[in-house]
Design goal:
alpha/beta, six-stranded mixed beta sheet, 3 helices, Leucine-rich repeat, LRR (right-handed beta-alpha superhelix)
Length: 383
């Protein structure tokens, strides 16, 4: 009986192993080629999966293929199609995969359909001839290195609802001279505009709370930067080698300025450091050889308490440091000097700083403090 059961079980397993349903999940959609395009049909719609690498000139992707609506372009579908110059996409497209058009070196123009909601990673990276891109409303994120090294890209139109610009998104776009960031943007990640050496001005939206590492590093012709009130952090190397930047207004909300944030900004002449700063890395302004004046909204005592990283001595090259606030005066150590236009100098024993104080106030304070002593001395003399 046991032998019979074993035989039946083995027979059932054998039938299952050759069943057409056993490996249904491994069955790949049929690849169909029409012209230079190869596509598959999935869920009743067509997905472009490849383009002939030898294709040249203009490519027009139809909205239907053999009656199937074209809705998707798979990862790397047009990758390294080095001779195509123009691509026209139908409005039916709702998805473009990672690196979909990367390394299309001759590509000069392409439209992004209105149904796209995200620009994926590397989608147009190293499209060295791409001149202009208009990103449609509805796109909320530009992915990692999406337009990396698009060296001819000179005009970029961003949608009003854009929220996030990922790392390296426009890095090394050397033809880009200006770009308007929508007010909706909340995150601009590391190196997003690194190496955009002809970018001249940038206004960072009010929703952005941090300028991340090397975001605008090596933007050699950047002359104007507007930082928003509400910004809290300027991270390592954010504006390294922005050699044309002559002025930077750091918002009062900034609490952290990290290592080499403004390294080698040799045209920078003056900077104001906000009162609420908690961490100011000692080499944040190293190499700023043109810096003449640094203004701090607090007093020397507050400045000394700020975390400066590995070294307590901040390198401001040859700049003069100015304190906006004077150190709180120890009333017991006041010393009156010669009258000078209604003002006197108060010598502060601890910090050797002078502060203007009006004579009436000073005399009143002095009389209140010294009255008991003077009265006692007078009584002693009378006796």
């Amino acid at each position: 009986m046991k032998k019979q059961l074993s035989f039946i079980l083995c027979f059932i397993l054998l039938i299952m192993s050759i069943s057409p349903f056993a490996h249904a999940e491994d069955v790949q959609p049929e690849k169909i080629t029409e012209g230079v395009l190869t596509y598959t049909v999935e869920n009743g719609n067509a997905t472009i999966i490849a383009c002939d690498k030898e294709a040249t000139g203009e490519i027009v992707v139809p909205d239907t293929l053999d009656g199937y609506t074209v809705t998707r372009i798979r990862n790397k579908a047009f990758d390294s199609c080095k001779a195509i110059t123009c691509v026209t996409l139908p409005d039916t497209i709702t998805f473009m995969g990672e690196s979909a058009f990367s390394k299309c070196y001759a590509l000069e123009s392409i439209n992004i359909p209105a149904g796209i909601s995200d620009i994926n990673s590397h989608v147009f990276s190293e499209c060295k001839s791409l001149l202009e891109i208009v990103i449609p409303e509805g796109v909320t994120e530009i992915g990692y290195a999406a337009f990396y090294s698009c060296k001819s890209l000179s005009n970029v139109v961003l949608p009003k609802g854009l929220i996030e610009i990922s790392a390296d998104a426009f890095s090394n776009c050397i033809a880009l001279t200006q770009i308007e960031l929508p007010y909706s943007v909340e995150e601009i990640y590391s190196r997003a505009f690194k190496g955009c050496k002809n970018l001249t001005c940038i206004k960072i939206p009010s929703g952005v709370k941090a300028v991340y590492s090397s975001t605008f590093a090596y933007c050699e012709n950047l002359t104007e930067v507007e930082l928003p009130e509400g910004l809290s952090s300027i991270f390592e190397g954010s504006f390294t080698d922005c050699k044309a930047l002559s002025k930077i207004d750091i918002p009062s909300s900034v609490k952290f300025i990290e290592s080499k944030a403004f390294y080698n900004c040799e045209s920078l002449e003056s900077v104001t450091i906000p009162l609420e700063i908690k961490r100011f890395y000692y080499d944040a302004f190293t190499g700023c050889t043109g810096l003449t004046d640094v203004y701090y909204d607090g007093c020397i005592e507050k400045w000394q308490r700020i975390d400066k990283g590995d070294n307590d001595t901040v390198n401001f090259e040859n700049a003069t440091f100015h304190y906006k606030e004077t150190t709180p005066i120890d009333l017991l150590e006041l010393k009156l000097d010669d009258l000078n236009d209604g003002l006197v100098d108060v010598n502060l024993i601890l910090f050797s700083i002078t502060a203007p104080v009006s004579i009436p106030l000073l005399v009143l304070i002095r009389l209140i403090l010294l009255a008991p002593t003077l009265l006692w001395e007078k009584l002693v003399q009378l006796n």
